[in-house]
Write a structure and sequence with these properties.
By secondary structure, the chain is of the alpha+beta class. It has helices spanning 2-22, 145-148, and strands at residues 28-41, 48-60, 63-74, 80-90, 96-107, 111-122, 124-125, 130-139, 150-160.
Length: 161
């Protein structure tokens, strides 16, 4: 029983040290994720499918500036494109993070919108540089809160360089 506890503590320390090395100033980040897939909700549609690409740069230890592009398709609405910038802060050295962003949304002739958003997620390291990143997000619509504000889950893959 004591050996098992020692092994668990050693593994936790190693994971924390390995994760901390990835969140140092000067590192780059590239990621892609899926959103929706029945895992998001807003007032105008019950589900959507989205693809997102994100790039980032750690401007300080644990603080990343990000830029993102996203394509999203809702069942009875035109596809829309989203472009945004934001910040991500790693609050725990093992990969837990909080994020905030500002997005511009364009849906053809249907509408344009400004959507600030927040996220909370976790970077699970598969190797020294590759992560799986589940994320809970909320995007607030200024065009129509009840129709276009969205809460959902994203599943992403990230690479820290």
């Amino acid at each position: 029983m004591i050996k098992k506890r020692i092994y668990v503590v050693l593994i936790a320390v190693l994971v924390t040290v390995a994760a901390h090395a990835q969140f140092e100033a000067g590192k780059y980040y590239v990621g892609a994720s899926l959103s929706g897939v029945g895992l998001s909700y807003n007032g105008s549609e019950k589900a959507s499918f989205g693809l997102q690409g994100r790039a980032g740069y750690l401007i300080d230890d644990n603080l990343m500036a990000t830029a993102q592009l996203e394509w999203d398709k809702k069942h009875s609405q035109p596809a829309y494109f989203k472009a945004g910038v934001g910040m991500r802060y790693y609050i725990v050295q093992n990969g837990l993070y909080l994020g905030a962003q500002a997005n511009y949304v364009h849906a053809g002739n249907a509408f344009d919108d400004f959507q600030p958003g927040i996220q909370i997620g976790y970077a699970f390291f598969l190797s020294k540089t590759v992560t799986v990143e589940p994320e809970l997000y909320y995007d607030q619509s200024f065009k129509s809160h009840s129709d276009f504000s969205t809460v959902g889950i994203r599943i992403g893959i990230g690479v820290y360089l």
